[in-house]
Specification:
The chain is mostly helical. 78% of the residues lie in helices and 0% in strands. The relative contact order is 0.13.
């Protein structure tokens, strides 16, 4: 069976997908670096060594943390991540509509569909110039309409309907369900770590009440660690995404039951309704992360 995988989608999708993944990794690595440096600085402040090199190292770590923040502020990798993801998903939606012969690619010759597809891609790219200007050149010479897309387009309605149900509807449903569970587990793990750190800080603080001269108690470093855990939970939005993703999975399940379209017109409407549902969830996701 022909499969419309990331490798067989338009070249622009693969470029935007790569840019999104790299920008996401850069964003989270920079935040992790900042938190790690601040935690190390907090640990170093517990019992400083009375030597110049120690304070030099201490200052350098602070400067590195500041540099990481400035780099994030100036380059905005999270904005590149969001917009590149939106660009990639928009291209994927157009590719599936083209491959399934859904509107606006359902009338006229293949040449006309090619022309319409090129125009739509150009409009999407024009609306995402910020991400478009940063796209990698790796797939610049690859086709936007792949042989697999054309092969799917030529199949009978029953075959296209089966392929769409399995490779698009069920694939999306499984992805959202799996991601919902993953985010729920992460929320529990990080929340537990945050609570434990708070408790350790409280215990350390209580010990210091009876022993105010003990300088080695890690109260301040534990406070910084707890703040870092809390910040990570807020940045990743684990609980919010877990709830949103499971609702989307159920919505896609309801869509799956309506796929038995007996005509090209009905199937075209179904594909457009489905892709609109996918796009709506992704648009809301981008809006949440931009908030």
């Amino acid at each position: 069976m022909i499969q419309l995988t990331p490798e067989t989608l338009p070249a622009l999708y693969r470029s935007a997908d790569r840019l999104s993944a790299e920008s996401q990794n850069t964003y989270f690595r920079l935040i992790f670096l900042e938190y790690s440096l601040l935690i190390v600085c907090a640990l170093m402040s517990m019992k400083p060594v009375e030597e110049g090199w120690y304070f030099t190292l201490y200052t350098v770590l602070f400067v590195l943390a500041l540099s990481s923040f400035i780099y994030r502020y100036v380059n905005k990798p999270e904005q590149v991540w969001y917009q590149a993801r939106a660009l990639a998903e928009s291209i994927k939606t157009l590719a599936w509509k083209f491959s399934m012969r859904a509107a606006p690619f359902d009338e006229g010759s293949v040449a006309k569909a090619h022309s319409e597809f090129a125009e739509r891609i150009q409009k999407v790219l024009s609306a995402n110039t910020f991400a478009g200007s940063k796209l990698p050149a790796e797939w610049g010479d690859k086709p936007q309409v792949t042989p697999q897309m054309l092969s799917l387009r030529e199949k009978k309605l029953t075959e296209r309907r089966e392929i769409y149900a399995e490779q698009r509807i069920q694939n999306q449903r499984s992805w959202y369900a799996k991601k919902s569970g993953f985010n729920k587990r992460c929320a529990n793990y990080w929340s537990a770590a945050c609570i434990c750190t708070y408790l350790l800080a409280v215990i350390s603080s209580m010990i210091r009440i009876d022993n105010p001269t003990w300088s080695f108690l890690p109260t301040e470093p534990l406070i910084v660690v707890a703040a870092a855990f809390l910040g990570w939970i807020q940045i990743k939005k684990f609980n919010e995404l877990a709830s949103s993703y499971i609702l989307t999975a159920h919505e896609i399940g309801l869509l799956h039951q309506k796929i038995n379209s007996s005509s090209e017109e009905a199937f075209s409407r179904f594909v457009n309704d489905s892709e609109q549902a996918f796009s709506r969830e992704h648009t809301q996701w981008v809006a949440r992360f931009n908030a």
